[in-house]
Amino acid sequence: MAAGTGTGAGPQAGAQTGATGRTRGAGTELATGRPGSGGGRLRRGLLAALVAAAVVVPVSAAASPNVPAPAPATFSEDATPRSRYAANGANLAEAARTAEDADRPGRAARLRAMGAAGEAQFLTFDGRGRGRAVEVFGELESADRVAVLVPGSDTTLDTYERFRAGAVSLRQRLQAEHPRSAVVAWLGYDTPGTVSTTVLSADRADAAAAELAPFLERLRGISGPDARLSLLCHSYGSVVCARTATGSAVSDMVLFGSPGTGAGSARELPTGARVWAGRGSGDWIGNVPHVRLGGIGFGTDPVDPAFGARAFAAGAVGHSDYLKPGTESLDSLAAIVLGTTPASEADHG
User: Fold this and answer.
1) DSSP code of residue 125
2) In the β-sheet with 252-256, what is the strand arrangement from edge to edge?
3) I want to staple 154 with a disulfide (CB 3.0 to 4.6 A). Which of 59, 61, 203, 290 is the partner?
4) Is the Cβ–Cβ distance between 136 and 98 less than 8 Å?
5) Across all residues in the chain, what is the average pLDDT?
6) pTM value?
7) Do β-strands 274-278 and 252-256 pair in parallel, antiparallel, or remain unpaired?
8) Distance (Å, whole) CA 125 – CA 105
């Protein structure tokens, strides 16, 4: 469930999809069995194996080394975006030097690429471990359309470039129609590894939601007056968004390439935003069993009409291709952010 651009590899066989890649028979819930019963344990074990077989793909991102890095910069509550950009840019440069001194040239090179040309705008940066980064593309303080991207598994400082590429692509697409737009790439949590057991549960998502909710409130305060915020959630990022209480800060929540959310319907999500869902017909995640048992799996498929989300057309894209230039999915996502009508199926909301 890697986010941004990537290999898009994964299981393909056995999917039965329509034009939009909607998997038939999704949303099945399994009985838990009696607590402590052998049958219940067996079903949980079988479910874990089933979901793992579908989710764990034969690719993995570069391992995130335990590289020394300076502590992140600290700010007062009223710090301006510009002051944050400057301080975090300096911290990023120091982190690159520290990595180089620690004989970690790969991490050092990736950090330098993040700060290339001195134009990067980071609201948050932490170079320690797998890393955290929140980057702004555009003039946030004057923007009246703001998209917040939440990535899926295996998104770290070592794979950041693919996440950034998606954010840049979306910003360019929005700018073509609406100059007063901005994109925020929110790597504000420790994403699970695609090849790991953590990607099968909501534990990382729960921790991330506790960080994302207050961030959205702060973002509304520093973006343009009456800015329209949209939350775009890819893959495991959709599990994060589904657990985030958005209050009135967000107008639209978009789930794409989603394995499920853990909720049975869009009405169960802690948001007043309009909820959208879409999946490309080439996305392997449509083959993931939409079941939930004992904290494993994520239940109802968000593109199933029974979930109640508004459908948007994603075309034929693969799992890592939703934000690639020229795709139908990118057009649809941009239309949702801008508040125009995306190419879509029937409105289930």
Assistant:
1) E
2) 122-126, 132-137, 181-187, 145-150, 228-234, 252-256, 274-278, 310-311
3) 61
4) no
5) 81
6) 0.81
7) parallel
8) 19
Neighbour tally for 210: CB within 10 Å = 13
Q: What is the 3-state secondary structure (H, E, C) of 170-230?
A: HHHHHHHHCCCEEEEEEECCCCCCCCCCHHHCCHHHHHHHHHHHHHHHHHHHHCCCCCEEE
For residue 222, what pLDDT is reported?
Answer: 92
Q: What is the pLDDT of residues 11-65, one digit of tens each?
A: 333 333 333 333 333 333 333 333 344 444 434 443 444 444 444 333 333 444 5
pLDDT per residue over 242-256, tens digit each? 999 998 889 999 999
Contact 185, 149 (CB under 8 A): yes
Residues in contact with 263: Cβ distance below 8 Å, sequence separation at least 6, in sequence order = 242, 269, 299, 300
Give Cβ neighbours of residue 344 (< 8 Å, ≥ 6 apart).
310, 311, 312, 313, 332
> At 325, which amino acid appears?
P
Asked which of 42-46, 219-223, 231-235, 251-255 is least confident by mean pLDDT, the reply is 42-46
DSSP 8-state class, residue 72? P
Task: Please list the residues that pair with 253 across neighbouring strands.
Answer: 231, 275
Place of tokens 């090179």: 109
Per-residue pLDDT at 288: 82
Residue whose C-alpha is closest to residue 275's, from 338, 208, 349 = 349
Nearest CA to 307 out of 13, 29, 46, 3 is that of 29
State yes or no: pLDDT of 108 exceeds 60.
Answer: yes
pLDDT of residue 290: 76
Give yes or no for residue 211 having a pLDDT over 50. Answer: yes
Supply the pLDDT for residue 117: 63
Which pLDDT score is estimated for 121? Answer: 97
Under 8 Å CB-to-CB from 172, ≥6 apart: which residues?
Answer: 325
CA distance 290 to 51: 9
